[in-house]
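Hey,

Quick one before I head out. I ran the complex with prephenic acid overnight. Inputs first:
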Amino acid sequence: MSPSTPPTRFAYLGPEGTFAEAALSIAVASSEGARYPQPSVPAALAAVRSGDTDAALVPLENSVEGSVPATMDGLADGEPLVITREVFLDVVFVLAARPGTELSAVRSVASHPHALAQTAGRLAELLPDVVPLPTSSTAAAAEAVAAGEYDAAVCAPIAAERYGLVPVVEDLADHPGAATRFVLVEPAGVLPAPTGNDKTSLVVVVEDRTGALLDVLREFSVRDISLTRIESRPTRERKWVYSFSLDCEGHVADRRVGEALAALHRVCEDVRFLGSYPRADGRQNRPVPAMADDPAFAEADAWLAAIRARA
Ligand SMILES: O=C(O)C(=O)C[C@]1(C(=O)O)C=C[C@@H](O)C=C1
């Protein structure tokens, strides 16, 4: 593990006032680097790949709406990048409009598709005749409302304030208490040191055969590694061939995790390492049983070496 220079130039899903910007402020103090808002998740990832920025802060999944496809696919394909940090942010939505706008006068609503999905029920109740329109982010919608392109935006209270809008409806979420998980992404090769409470992320592609997924799961199970997320995505390059995107407990520097990855490399068509980083969801990794901890692996290595030395 080589110590790397901490990032100082950060891309994020912009413009100013997005949830991504709020998450970046949790991850990095504003005095610690320059921020570069990007028009989309692919643009934020491209900024890291081109070297224009050192890192990007992008949304990965939401506790109500699930994964963010642009991030999942952007990490699974292209020049390898790694997650070096995760950040959880509670998301609260308002319906924001230009000052003086009554709810009954709202004829158009815009926001990021994930935000529209999390408020679809309330919007249908409040504005049954309005078909919500997608924008690249919640703050982009607020900016467009300020410019007169739409009547209202679903956005964070801070975005409403930033663009001179006022909340027409507060607490708009269908399922209050939702949170979004954001990740800080850096070029492959950056590896945060193990903390004892880490997660590792991977994308694996398996052959289309009976038991292929079971073979993947077995490599974790036999080493007492708990998965915290698994989902499938189309590979897109090959029709009806899927990849599995997953997070597990532990760090690639842990023997059991390293051995599981090496085993997956043997049994899968492709394995992409997406980073090991400190766990930040407020939970503690399950205790590692004595037979799966690093000293147990070292003792087993010594035992095998002794047998081979005698042979
Ligand atoms: O548009 C924003 O403000 C974002 O940061 C993106 C995003 C998302 O992709 O899920 C983040 C949190 C909310 O769930 C809605 C939108």
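The first strand starts at residue 9 and ends at 13.

Talk tomorrow,
K.
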